[in-house]
Amino acid sequence: MKISENGLNLIKSFEGCRLTAYKDSVGIWTIGYGTTNADKAITGATICQGLQISQETADEWLRQSVDKKYGPKVEKYNAAYGWNQNEFDALVSFAYNIGSIDQLTANGTRSRSMIAEKILQYNKAGGKVFAGLTRRREAERALFLTPMVSEVKTGWKNENGKWSFYLSNGQKVKNDWYCDNGKWYWFGADGTMFANQWVQYKGKWYYLSDSGTMVTDKLLAIKNEIFAFGSDGAMREGTFTVHTNRRGAIEL
């Protein structure tokens, strides 16, 4: 698995790029996007006073460093997590800054939600909180939690034998009606479609058939009792007129 351009751009936005060698805050010769002599096996160059490189070289050294050194630190946990591209990119950025994701993932034992929560805690250097590190961790966490477009659920989904409906934003319809192809359905607090069930809504009673659709304009036998439902689906009460059709069946 390789980092995407989006992931590289995230790293670039926080690392910054300097095309002339300089000593960092702890006296280490650095160039480009944080390239040091620790990367000599990758760059083949010695970072020292007076060294200058082109933007193209800085970009290439970053790509090689990420692909050969930091990507594998995230890839080794892919069997346990099955990273999507956004998760992978976010964690490679984290590893590029911190060194690895071993502690963050507790060596692959933490859940995704725990990882997302823990990311924000790595915003200190020397025990002091840095605004730049805080912003970076927030950006990495946001990317980590961003679903891939192809992974956003939409429409009807049967999950563990129960039907739910996902809106275009990937959220389930919950505690509400939803009209699909002219038919109304009710979904409970957990997003599960009601079927063969009553639901009370704004003081009126409605019944959902075995297919989940709201019963309308008909008489229906439910547990040895006959109920009438109007065109709006609400159960009818009081006095109303019925008639028989050509087959002798009773209709509203």
Description:
A two-stranded antiparallel ribbon has the order 1-2. It has two domains: 5-147, Lysozyme; 159-251, Ribbon (left handed beta-beta-3-solenoid), CATH 2.10.270.10. The mean pLDDT is 92. It is α+β, with helices and mostly antiparallel strands and 252 residues long. It contains eight helices and 14 strands. A hairpin with a 2-residue loop joins β11 and β12. The radius of gyration is 30 Å and the shape is rod-shaped. The protein has helices at residues 5-15, 40-43, 55-75, 78-81, 85-98, 102-105, 112-119, 131-144; strands at residues 18-23, 29-32, 124-125, 128-129, 155-159, 162-166, 176-180, 183-187, 197-201, 204-208, 218-222, 225-229, 243-244, 250-251. α3 packs across α5 (85-98) and α5 packs antiparallel against α8 (131-144). The protein starts with a helix and ends with a strand.
User: Beta fraction of the residues?
Assistant: 15-25%
pLDDT < 50 runs, ≥5 residues: none
Spatially, the strands of the biggest sheet line up as 1-2
Which architecture of the largest domain does the CATH hierarchy give at level 2?
A: Orthogonal Bundle
Task: Give structural attributes.
single chain; 252 residues; alpha+beta; Lysozyme; left handed beta-beta-3-solenoid; two-stranded antiparallel ribbon; 14 strands; rod-shaped
Summarize it.
The protein is built from eight helices and 14 strands. It has 252 residues and is of the alpha+beta class.
Layout of helices and strands, plus pairs?
Layout: H1 5-15, E1 18-23, E2 29-32, H2 40-43, H3 55-75, H4 78-81, H5 85-98, H6 102-105, H7 112-119, E3 124-125, E4 128-129, H8 131-144, E5 155-159, E6 162-166, E7 176-180, E8 183-187, E9 197-201, E10 204-208, E11 218-222, E12 225-229, E13 243-244, E14 250-251
Antiparallel strand pairs: 1-2, 3-4, 5-6, 7-8, 9-10, 11-12, 13-14
